[in-house]
Amino acid sequence: MRSTKSFGAVALALGAGTLLALAPAAAASAHVSASASSTAAGSSSVVTFSVPHGCDGSPTTVVTIEIPESVPAVTPTVNPNWTVEKVIEQLDEPLTDAHGNEITERVTAVAYTTIGAGLADGYRDTFDLSLRLPEGEVGDVVEFPVVQTCAVGTAEWVGEEAPSVTLTAAIEDDGHDAEAPATVATAGGDVLARAFGIGGLVVGTVAVVIAVLSRRSAKA
């Protein structure tokens, strides 16, 4: 019986040790992730960044999302629990966007700062960025490194752990931006219509005058 109890105690200790060893790995795997409404190369997309936990139990206070050079323009979505700030830099050479507008600056990072005590560990929040994905080949990876600052400690999600979007095949122009041809009234047509209208009015007036004169002649 002693040997059985001893074996059970050893097995329990080994099991507990295994769980403790795996716990940090499980926590580390739950990193900041990104999902996109569209992954087509060159398409407009809303990329959602998900923060699922704090830093070793400490609440998250700042989430800084770095924007790659291949994405020159970004529109952050307002989150009511955070303030948001865009970090801007001037471009050495202007770029032209998909609408033909000249771009002289770009967003290098977007920083969300908590309003209050921060995002408690064990709770999740998301941050949306509207942007245009770069042109590229199928399978190209667009990385958005993230720095997660907590009340105590910092987690950097970079390299292989950086949130990313993998490009898929580009979508051809579907024609939604094309304008329907406008109907234009020509000056000649307008003049002709007016002429017919005036002519009709004159004929009607003459007819009334003739009718009145005819009645007077009949009475006489």
UniProtKB/TrEMBL annotation:
Record has Chaperone as a keyword: no
Bilayer-spanning residue ranges: 191-213
Keyword terms of this UniProt record: Membrane, Signal, Transmembrane, Transmembrane helix
InterPro entries linked: YcnI-copper_dom, YcnI-like_sf
Domain YncI copper-binding residue range list: 31-184
Residues annotated as signal peptide: 1-21
Domain of life: Bacteria
Official protein name in the record: YncI copper-binding domain-containing protein
Organism: Pseudolysinimonas yzui
